[in-house]
Amino acid sequence: MKKLIIFGNTEVARLASYYFDRDSEYEIECFAVDREFLKEEELCGYPVVEFETVQDAFPPGEYDMFVAVGPNKMNAVREEKILEAIEKGYELASYQSPSAICHADYGYNTLIADYAVINPFAKIGNGNCFWEFTLVANDSEVGDFCYFSPRSVLASYSKVENNAVLGSGSIVKSRVRIGYKTLLGAGCFLSKDSEDYAVYGRRSEASLGNVSDKVKSWT
User: How many CB atoms lie within 10 A of CB 209?
Assistant: First the structure.
């Protein structure tokens, strides 16, 4: 059985550990976090160690890593830690739930949760999260480091650029482009191409401006 380090100590890390424990080929060995955020010695029954020195006790080649970080700073934190893990020499694990349906290839450090559906001919990049009941329709394209909240829907022939966030229950119409670091709020319906860094509320016509990098929280 392969051995796994999970980076993170938030609810996303706890959920990732549950999924990997439940039905993956991996055996979790520890969590790793940046030294400044190391507030507890144990999480979910596993030790928590410093990310800065994790390679000393858990060397690459013997352990893989999964970076379990949410959409903080439009996914930039997850992107940064994935790149740092690669620099340390770690292979990055992915997880696909046995109850998910995925007819497309996907890259490293991808999580596909229960009942998510990715249809044929979709293209999926690296470092993405697809939570419960997500739908990515046929011939759509998802870049790197994106975050699909539960029940978000991407219709056919649409494209999501890197670092986008789709809020819970959001829907993207077919043949629509979602720009770089675009944020769709919960329940948003997007029927036209977005600009980069755009923030949308419940209607695609109601852009709140190109300010996604300034958003600190959402529902």
Answer: 10
Q: What is the pTM of this model?
A: 0.91
Structure token digits, residue 53: 């020195």
Measured CA to CA, the distance from residue 124 to residue 105 in angstroms comes to: 7
Q: Which residue has the tokens 């629509």?
A: 176
Tens of pLDDT, residues 106-123: 999 999 999 999 999 999
pLDDT of 215 higher than 70: no
Token pair recorded at residue 70: 């949410």
Reported for 79-86, long-range contacts at CB under 8 A and 24+ positions apart, including other chains, are 79/127, 79/144, 79/145, 79/163, 81/7, 81/51, 82/108, 82/109, 82/126, 82/127, 82/145, 84/51, 85/7
For 195, phi then psi, to 5°, come to -85, 165
